[in-house]
Amino acid sequence: MSNPDRVVSEEDIRVMAQAAGISIPDYAMPGVMTNTVLLRHYMALIEELYIPDHCEPAFGYVP
Amino acid sequence: MSYGIAELAGAIRRGERSSRDVIEETFRDVKARDPFFNTVTRSLYDRALAAADVTDRKIARGEEIGALAGVPFGIKDLFDVRGEVTTAGSLVLRNNPPAQEDAAVVRNLCAAGAIPVVMTNMDEFAYGFATDNAHHGVTRNPRNSEHLAGGSSGGSAAAVAAGMLPLALGSDTNGSIRVPASLCGIWGLRPTQGVLPMSGVYPFVASLDVVGPFTRSPEDLRLAFSGMAAVTHGELPSLEGLRVARLGGWFKQDLDAVLDSTIDDLVKYFGTSNEVVLPEADKARAAAFVISAAEGGNLHLPRLKTCADEYDPATRDRLIAGAILPAAQVIQAHRLRTMFREQMHALMQQYDILIAPATLGEAPRIDMPFVTLNGKSVSARANLGLFTQPLSLAGFPVLSAPLRKPGAEGLPLGVQLIARPGEEELLFAVAEDLQTAGLLGYEPAAADGGN
User: Fold this and answer.
1) Reported ipTM
2) Domain boundaries, chain A
C-alpha cells in the first residue's frame, strides 16, 4: 500500500520519470513534486478500500 | 443578445428577424463587450455570415429549416471546426493541420440550423477549474468581473451568462461544465457518458470525457441537447410519485450556508426531507483524480519528452506527475469505478433524483483563487470540483442548475440534479418544475460591466 506520509525524494521522481523517458528540468521539479505528493495521497485513499477479486477495471472497452 | 434559443429561432422562422441581422448583432455585441470578459479566442465571422445568408434564402423560398435555424452558438476551443486548428487552449498543437470537418455534435447542431460564431477560452487541455489560460488570459465572471468564471469550459459559460450567446458548448471530465455553469448562474448539462458522440473532440481523459451545452434556461438546455444528439423528444415525463433525496456526507462538507438551506428547500418541495449518503464518495473523487492524471499524462507523454516548456507550467507539472504514476494504482482506480457505479445504481433503485451542491459556494476572486476546505485554504483550480468529480466517475447524467437565491456576495450558487443513465428527460422535467416554483433560475440584480 502507498504510504502518503513517506517523503517523496527528487531522486524517486527522477527514477520514475526516467522509466517513462522524461527528463525533468530543475525548475519544473517543485511543481512535479507537489503534484506527485498529492497523487500519492489519493492513491493511498483508493488502496485502502477492499475490492473483491471479481470486481474488474471499468475500462469501458466494448468490442 | 438576451434572447433564448426558442425565442430567437421562432423570430427567425416567422421572418420577424433575418438570420444575418442576428449574426451581425451577435458579432457587434461580442466585439463591444468581450474585451471585458475575455471569453472568446477566435471569431468564425465569414463562415457565420455565409451560413446566415443560406438560412435567410431558405426561409425566403419557403424551404424546410431546422429547429435551431439561425441560432448562434459558441464552441469550446477543443472541438474540431472545419478549417481551424484544434488547439485545446494550448500553443503545443498550434502547428497541427486544420480540422477537415466539424466535430460530430457541431455537425448535428449545424444540421438543425444553428450557426457557430466563435470559439471560447478554456484551461489548457481542459486541466483545471478556473479558465485561467497562460496563453489567452483569464476569463472573468459576468456576474462580477473580479471573480473567476470557473472552468475548464469557462469561456463558453461566461459568454452565455453575459448574454452574448444563447448557447455554447463545453466538455466535462471532472466538472468542467457543471462548475462554470454554477459559478456563472446558468444551466449546464453533463449527459450520460457515451450518449453524445465524441468524434472530433480533443480528449483529456477518454474514460471520463463527455460534451454538453450551456444555456440560460432549462427549456433551451433541452433544445440544445436534442440538437447535439440529433434526436427529437416528445413530452416531458410526469413527476407524479417522484422520489427525491439530497446527498449528505461528503456533499455537505464546508458548504455555503445559503446553498445548504436551499438544497433542503428543493427536497422539501417534493414533500420529503430525505438525505442519503453515497458510500465512498471521497474515494470516488480520488479515483477520478488518479485516472485523470494518468490518462492525461499518457496522452501528452510524447510531447512532454520533446516540448514540455511549451505547456503552461502548471499544466506541464500536473501532466508529468500523472505520466509517471504506477500502473497498479491506476488499475485499482478503474476497479473502484466499477464498485462505485454499482453503489450508484443501488442508491438509484430507491430514488429517482438525487440533489447535491455543484461547488462549495460562490465564485472565488481572481486575485484570491482559493477555496476553504477542512479549515485550510486550497487551490481553486484543483479543488472547485470537489462535488462534481465523484459523480463523473459514475457517468450518470447530471444537470447543473442555478439557484434563484444568490449567495452572501450576491453571486450565483448551483446544484447538481442527478438521474439514472439515459434519463436526461427526467432531469429537464425536474429543472423546469423547480424553475416554475421559483426555486431555480438565477436572476442577477445587475449585470457587471460590458453592457
Assistant:
1) 0.88
2) 1-63
Can B5-229 and B244-436 be said to share one CATH topology? yes
- Give percent helix, percent strand, percent coil of chain B, each to the nearest 5: 40, 15, 40
Q: Chain A interface, mutation test: which of B317, B319, B373, most A Cβ atoms within 10 Å? A: B317
* Region for B17 from its dihedrals, namely left if φ exceeds 0, alpha if ψ lies in -120 to 50, beta otherwise: beta
Distance CA B152, CA B145 (A): 17
Chain B residues with CB under 8 Å of A39 CB are: 289-290, 293, 321-322, 325
Task: Report the topology of domain B5-229.
Answer: Amidase signature (AS) enzymes (3.90.1300)
Contact A2 B329 (CB under 8 A): yes
Q: Please name the CATH architecture into which domain B244-436 falls.
A: Alpha-Beta Complex (3.90)
> Does the distance separating the beta carbons of A42 and B289 come in below 8 Å?
yes
| Chain CA centroid to CA B118, Å | 16
The packing angle between helices B45-60 and B19-37, to 10°, is: 150
Interface of B with A (CB under 8 A): 207, 280, 282-283, 286-287, 289-290, 293, 301, 304-305, 308-309, 313-314, 316-318, 320-326, 329, 331-339, 341, 382
Q: What is the pLDDT along chain A (63 residues), one digit of tens a residue?
A: 455 556 789 999 999 999 999 999 999 999 999 999 999 999 999 999 999 888 988 887 666
Per-residue pLDDT tens over the stretch B7-34: 999 999 999 999 999 999 999 999 999 9
User: Where are the domains positioned within chain B?
Assistant: 5-229, 244-436
